[in-house]
Protein 1
Amino acid sequence: MPLLDTLDAGAAFRYYDGMAPLLAVFLVLAATAEPLSKEMEYRLSLARALPAPYSAAVIVALMPSAKLSRGQATALAEEAYQLAGDDQATAVLAWTAYRDNYDPKTNPLLDFPQRERTRPASCEQTEVNDPRNYYRNARAAGDAEFQLALRNIRSAVEVGRAIEVLAGLPPVEQNALVPRLTRLLSTASGSDREFLYAIRFTRLHSTILEVAEDRQVTSGRMLLASYRNFLTTNLSGMRCANNRAEEFKGILEEFNRTADKIGGVPMLPYEAARVITVDPGTKADRITSFPLTYKVAQAPIDDVSVTGMLHEIEQFQPEETPATGPILTAKVSIYQKFAARLKGNRFEDRVVREWVHFVAYSQLQEENPKLWFACARSFADWAKNDTAKLSELASAGDPALAAYVRLVTLLPESEVTRVLP
């Protein structure tokens, strides 16, 4: 008997694990004798051309609008789970799709994606581990899955992302979650780099104040008291050199307003934000591109000036900095600001085309897939409803960008935002 005839969908996928994803899924579907529609096959081929782990997220997002059998859905969800790799937030989406479709009689349940306990980020590090949507996706998967996701929390950033989940939940659910999150908040210290990132880039602060002021959340005062200790502990420790006391004036003002409003939690003196000790090993958390960014914002808008600015951006290369990673981020930011300034101007197309060329022939897709997708979205907006510009993007020399553009034009407009990250 042929091997394919003896395998169910999940077994077939695991047997062919390691093969090219397109071939693996073809063999899985052959095993289940359930071919996908030609339209779905084409959409999936475009999704697979996108950089991982976002290719996995797009595959999962394409599934609800397709008429899939449980076997087909299970195979696609497992493929997405594999493509997600170390991106646990995307892996949770794939895991949930798999769990909701698999047949426990023929397939084992995949392991729930859990984050490993991270090491504290020192002031010498410029990158901070940010789980972003991991806890929100875990919460959507179920209460048990959310509790699993909370097991290895250590950093202020992780706690900030977990506490974001509280926003928008009914008071009864917030009351159930607050005690656990309060305990986690009390242990999140030891890294000023992570502390500052959590304050700046997560909704930790605003969510805690919102929950504390809701009188239906009986444990809100407990959460605010724990937040006070969190602020006191982290502000009194060794700080990175670029963490300034004045940045926390507004934070403390808002905290004190809420503490005064609900009562029972002492206010924080502004002296609490004073920097006592500074880590001498602090490295800048971003490349200094301010002079060039300023020039882009102030330069005259004429042929000579625009040509000169584009040349300067192309040549931008800070000293003693690797040619990948932060450099790419800085250049993208400058192109983005220049294009935004020229929006609607006759020079806009020229700047965007230079930006497209840079992205297509840089290592941005490998170094920072999230930023690559942000660029792709900007390019698609620029080319919207313009056949010639869409054709330019598709032939820019970046196969992933070509696939993205084809998905944008293929999907109904109402689906683009939901399907494409």
Protein 2
Amino acid sequence: MEKGEGLGIHTVPLARLMPEVTGDDLRRVADAGVAIDQARTDDLLWKWEAGDRWSSFHMCVTEHHRGGDAYYLELEVESHSTKGARVIVATVNVVCWCREDHQFHDVAEVRHECEDGGAVADAFERTASQIIGWLKDTHDPVQLRTRVGLPSRAIP
């Protein structure tokens, strides 16, 4: 297995991780990743790994708030050799304050399954736009939980 990490999308070996994405489509993915990096205010860390017939790369924006609260924005792009598809998933998560501890809750998610390089580029651009919108939106976990009807504080 091969793995790595770096600061910014330009450190991710996109062509090696996504051989089905070539030429202009690969440039579109890289450009969308740069747009995400430009909207981020954290360390810009991206991680990646690859095996014999699979690969993935991801980034996560983590913010810790008072009282043990937290905000997480994650993007994962991975291949599944059994399905032959590339999956792009982005989520915003917050800490769970339910009676039964679920640890985290997704308050927003986008998911795409792509069969070819053009579809990967299209889906990655759409997902990047959504992520940039989330980065511009509130990162307050209380407000985000309230939007989706989750408890905002621990319930005794």
Protein 3
Amino acid sequence: MKIAIIEQNRDAITAVFDAANGESQVNTVDISTAFLATVSAEFILHDLGIPEAMREGAKAQYIEGEAGQPTTR
């Protein structure tokens, strides 16, 4: 299932994360983390000089780094 990480899809994204996380209390992801990773990826694409028109369909990988700081690739 593909869901664009945009504010209008907040409820759908939260439902998917809740289902995936289940009863887990650690190593979970939430909506704020998804939005943070999305913004980080957009900045990276911008810094690389990739025009917005060419960003549709771009994929990013979120990896939690040291001290819980996210790294977006």
